[in-house]
Amino acid sequence: MEKILELGARLEACAGFVREGKVPADIGTDHAYLPIWLVLSGKVPAAYASDINEEPIRSAVKNINYYGLSEKIKTFTASGLEKTPQEKVDDIIIAGMGGDNISAILSGAEWLKNRRYRLILQPMSRASRLREHLYKNGFDIIAEKAISEAERVYTVICAEYSGESLDYDDCSIYSGKLDSSDPNAATLLKKQVRILRSVAEGCAAKGDISGQAHFIELAQQLERDADGGKKDDNG
Ligand SMILES: C[S@@+](CC[C@H](N)C(=O)[O-])C[C@H]1O[C@@H](n2cnc3c(N)ncnc32)[C@H](O)[C@@H]1O
């Protein structure tokens, strides 16, 4: 009987951004469910799976062997993208880590600044800082999807190198390419509005009036997006 693997909504959303027929590298793979699913489904011909720790790699190897995919999925222990064979991979997946850790991993691989690669990033925290990192380094966010799993809402960011320094405003760091008509995206945007309002209160408590005004303005702009309203010329 054929062995089936079902992904949760979070990893399924990551898999959805992987390009058909390309070779992905799953960084911080842990159990390797994502590369296993991608190869088993026939979406990709082969994959790489790495992790900074030995224990997750042992679990990855066990699962890969169970599905009989040891010829198609190569595993290795490495920090970030250090040992990833850049000439052999196309799509880079980094999921289930903090946004700052993902930014640090991207910073360690200048070779990613190439239109050949697609980045599929699923931060567990600080998505705004990750978006800012991408924009500052010439990566364009081409799509973003919010998904709900185990009563938490996550975002998955799909980015590619544009080669240009992108013009972005402060609000787009918080909203990215989230589609506010999607209820999960609206939940994330509203959460971000609450965070910005509490940052504004923190500024007020310190007597930083211009900081307070800045974050209130951002919160209001984002709130209009979350409500499905369009940003107008008055900001
Ligand atoms: C919570 S698990 C996520 C597993 C899987 N990617 C997912 O989304 O379900 C995070 C994994 O990232 C690994 N990790 C953390 N920092 C890393 C780094 N700098 N380089 C490679 N792997 C890392 C951890 O060892 C752990 O196995």
Bound ligand species: S-adenosylmethionine
What structural category do the secondary elements indicate? Answer: alpha/beta
CATH T-level fold name of the largest domain: Rossmann fold
Counted up, domains total 2
Give me the CATH architecture of the largest domain, please.
Answer: 3-Layer(aba) Sandwich
End-to-end separation: 58 Å
Could you characterize the architecture of this molecule?
- The structure is a single chain.
- The protein has two domains: 160 residues, Rossmann fold; 44 residues.
- Helices cover 41% and strands 20% of the residues.
- The chain has eight helices and seven strands.
- A seven-stranded mixed β-sheet has the order 3-2-1-4-5-7-6, sandwiched between helices.
- The structure holds S-adenosylmethionine.
- The site of S-adenosylmethionine (SAM) has 16 residues, from strand 4 and helix 4.
How do the strands and helices of this protein lay out in sequence?
Blueprint: H1 9-17, E1 24-27, H2 33-40, E2 47-51, H3 54-66, E3 73-77, E4 91-97, H4 99-107, E5 118-123, H5 127-136, E6 139-149, E7 152-161, H6 170-175, H7 183-205, H8 209-226
Parallel strand pairs: 1-2, 1-4, 2-3, 4-5
Antiparallel strand pairs: 5-7, 6-7
Helix pairs in contact: 1-2, 4-5, 7-8
The structure holds S-adenosylmethionine (SAM).
